[in-house]
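FAQ: What does the model actually see?

It sees only this:
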Amino acid sequence: MTDAWPPISIVSDSLKISPLLEAPVEERERNPDDVFSILLDPSRTEQEFKWKTRTSLSEGVRAAIEYYREFGIEETFTHLRASVG
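And it is asked to produce this:
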């Protein structure tokens, strides 16, 4: 198994969000505490709560980009770390 992230262009192209991006997305090296992959499987939620999503991943990412633009959010973080001391 490779240790590399897929290039962001593959993700943005597959979600059809590339036209929404005004500048290239910064790609960072993975930190030691980053998980290799995140698999989203809503089946347990659907079964236990009798709830189904109505928003696709692509629609959700588009909405997030639009939200960030509307409210002037220019920077996000992948981690929150507790301060020591």
